[in-house]
């Protein structure tokens, strides 16, 4: 038992182990993005927030989903910490730059900048949760009722620099997903010549559609298209 535990500890501390963790948490967070984008997209019904509030209430009060939130927060933290550790490990393994290096010949700039993109997304995540998730959960805990998230969106996205921050956050998400979606499958060994092309196409489409959907929400509110 002790030997098995030691082996597992060594594995998860290794570069391969960290990549497996990144892959698993990455796929978990991709699933969350699908759900989150779908629920938030309900504002496009433009019915005064009725549909959005209905589904928002369901997500905010369903005991199963509330329990899964704990796993979601843990997944975010693990993904970010593991990603930064993996980036540092890879960086330390190459402490000396070659006199001549043609990095673009082997990888795209965004695949080499996942640490930076991940850090930017972390900053954006802190801002985003401080606007909506944290105040809403705090109000539920203290007063036992939800805030009007739809009205909060209408109010918050009247400020141009906040809208700009959200759009830039979505741009960072696009570049992060463009590498991360495909990388998650590769890290878990779920790649094969028969369906690698499909993963690449689906990943590229996902990387465009989801950030574009998120970015369009503050924009349509700011320009008065959603009231």
Descriptive report:
This protein has helices spanning 2-13, 15-40, 50-61, 63-93, 109-112, 114-131, 133-143, 149-156, 160-187, 196-222. It has ten helices and no strands. It is 78% helix and 0% strand. Helix 2 crosses helix 4, helix 4 packs antiparallel against helix 6 (114-131) and helix 9 (160-187) packs antiparallel against helix 10 (196-222). It has one domain. Residues 4-8 have low confidence and may be disordered. The chain starts with a helix and ends in a 5-residue tail after the last helix. The longest helix is centred in the middle third of the chain and has 31 residues, at 63-93. The protein is mainly alpha-helical and 227 residues long.
């Amino acid at each position: 038992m002790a030997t098995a535990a030691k082996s597992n500890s060594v594995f998860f501390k290794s570069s391969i182990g960290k990549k497996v963790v990144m892959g698993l948490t990455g796929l978990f967070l991709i699933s969350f993005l699908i759900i989150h984008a779908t629920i938030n997209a309900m504002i496009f019904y433009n019915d005064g927030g009725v549909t959005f509030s209905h589904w928002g209430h369901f997500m905010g009060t369903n005991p199963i989903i509330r329990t899964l939130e704990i796993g979601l927060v843990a997944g975010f933290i693990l993904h970010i910490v593991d990603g930064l550790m993996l980036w540092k490990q890879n960086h330390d393994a190459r402490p000396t730059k070659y006199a001549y290096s043609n990095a673009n010949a082997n990888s795209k700039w965004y695949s080499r900048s996942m640490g930076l993109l991940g850090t930017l997304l972390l900053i954006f995540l802190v801002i985003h949760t401080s606007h909506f998730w944290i105040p809403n959960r705090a109000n539920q805990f203290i007063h036992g009722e939800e805030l009007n998230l739809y009205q909060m969106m209408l109010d918050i996205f009247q400020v141009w620099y906040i809208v700009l921050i959200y759009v830039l956050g979505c741009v960072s998400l696009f570049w992060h997903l463009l590498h991360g979606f495909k990388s998650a499958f590769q890290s878990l060994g779920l790649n094969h010549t028969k369906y690698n092309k499909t993963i690449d196409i689906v990943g590229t489409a996902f990387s465009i559609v989801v950030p574009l959907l998120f970015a369009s929400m503050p924009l349509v509110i700011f320009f008065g298209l959603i009231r």
